[in-house]
Every structure is written in C-alpha cells, then in structure tokens.
C-alpha cells in the first residue's frame, strides 16, 4: 500500500464537537443522500477518537437509513482504536486525501484537517478531493472550536467551492467577527482590508451593533435581526434549506462562495 497522502493532525476531538455541521449536512444534503441507492459518506481525518464519525453515522441514518459511512485516518493507531466500534454501515480505514474507498463518495466531511497546511496546499487538497467524489457529490470542509461552539465551513462540489457557512452558539462570541479564527484555510489569511470576507465580517459586526437593542429579547433575536440587516447588501441565503428563519435561528448564516471568494491574488476554485 502506498503511503497515505497528508500529514497526521493533532487528533483533537470530542463528543458533539461537530454537531452543528452534522445538523446542517442532514438538512441541506439529506435529499441528495436519499437519491442514491447506497450513498457513501467519508469522514476524513476523524482524529484520535471514533466518536464524531459514529455521531455522523447515527445522525445521517435518521434522514437516510441506507447511508454508509467510512471514517478515514492517516494514523494506523487511530484506525486500530476505532475498529472495535464498527457496525453494519460504519467502518474505519487507513488513508488520507486520496480517499481509499471502493467507490466515489457522495459526501465527504473534512473538519480541522487543513489547519496545518499553507493556503496553496489547502487549495490543492480541495482540488484533489473534488476529483475523487461522485459526479454529483459534495464536500463539507471547515474548522470548529475545541468544543464546537464556533464553526465555519465551505460547501464544495466537483466544480469548486459553492457556499460558506458561519455557525455559532449564541453565548460563544461577543461579535460575529470572532468567528474569523475558524475560517477555512483558503480564506483565513484573507481576512484583511480589501478582501470580500473581511468586508462581510465588518458589515456583520455593524449589523450586530445596530441591532443591539434586541438583545433584551435574547441573542437569537438579535442574530436573526442582524442577518436580515445584512441581507440588504449581502446575498445571505434567505430560503430553506440553506437559509431563512429556520437556519438563522440556529445561529447560522450561509452565503454563496462567490460573494466572499479571494481577490485577484487569491484563487476562486
């Protein structure tokens, strides 16, 4: 077997760390999963514990009982530790960005695996993953805080990045731009004046401040009002499954990738 592609991560993980992303995946891509006879989902770089892969499997089984999930890790010891937790439809395998599975996956979840790479490498690994998914497959790649209360992820398909989602628990930030440290590697160094993602976070902070009086009714109401304010100048998703009140009230906001794509010196996919 050839050496897996990639480097071993710190492996930090924990129960419910990826719950926010899993909830979004089930809501946004549940129909895609149900459209296939044997939908294959890959959890890439699940870390030192099998926990988040098992949670993904159980959550997706609720929306698509036929889904199969494979957790892939580059560290043989982590794979060996996860093997006892296999069950029908859930397995663990040694590998990396090459995705050593029997057929192209319909969905890949990759969280906290690109933080240790440079921006150019992150774009290259995005391209590699895009070339390995099913024709109508998708990738959800992002980063979250240690306990999962703040997260940002990109949604990609075979043609490139399509969306960017910000998600946070309402007591996990003082202002929306606090989520900047969770931006995907392809964007995190672009949070500087002149870049679209910086402008978005600046405007989000302003909308948050303008709607401060609504804090008396709770942070959820303030967040929803801030997103409505943003919708006047930014193309935030306003309808299910990507947006609208049902997603905003969960502490989410999703934009088309094109709205925040890096400038001319960067890459847009």
UniProtKB/TrEMBL annotation:
<dbReference type="InterPro" id="IPR029063">
    <property type="entry name" value="SAM-dependent_MTases_sf"/>
</dbReference>
<protein>
    <recommendedName>
        <fullName>Class I SAM-dependent methyltransferase</fullName>
    </recommendedName>
</protein>
């Amino acid at each position: 077997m050839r050496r897996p592609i990639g480097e071993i991560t710190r492996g930090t993980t924990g129960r419910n760390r990826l719950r926010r992303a899993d909830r979004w995946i089930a809501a946004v891509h549940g129909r895609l999963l149900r459209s296939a006879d044997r939908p294959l989902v890959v959890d890439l770089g699940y870390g030192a514990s099998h926990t988040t892969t098992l949670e993904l499997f159980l959550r997706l089984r609720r929306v698509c009982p036929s889904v199969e999930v494979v957790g892939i890790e580059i560290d043989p010891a982590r794979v060996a530790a996860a093997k006892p937790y296999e069950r029908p439809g859930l397995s663990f395998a040694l590998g990396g960005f090459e995705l050593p599975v029997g057929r192209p996956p319909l969905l890949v979840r990759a969280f906290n695996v690109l933080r240790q790479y440079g921006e150019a490498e992150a774009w290259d690994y995005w391209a590699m993953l895009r070339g390995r998914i099913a024709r109508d497959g998708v990738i959800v790649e992002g980063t979250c805080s240690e306990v999962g209360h703040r997260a940002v992820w990109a949604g990609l398909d075979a043609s490139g990045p399509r969306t960017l989602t910000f998600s946070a628990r309402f007591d996990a930030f003082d202002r929306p731009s606090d989520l900047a440290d969770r931006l995907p590697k392809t964007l995190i160094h672009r949070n500087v004046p002149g870049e679209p993602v910086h402008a978005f976070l600046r405007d989000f902070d302003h909308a948050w401040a303008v709607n401060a009086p609504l804090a008396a009714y709770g942070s959820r109401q303030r967040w929803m009002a801030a997103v409505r304010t943003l919708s006047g100048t930014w193309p935030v998703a306003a309808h299910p499954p990507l947006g609208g009140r049902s997603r905003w009230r969960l502490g989410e906001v999703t934009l088309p990738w094109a709205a925040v794509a890096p400038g001319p010196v960067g890459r847009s996919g």
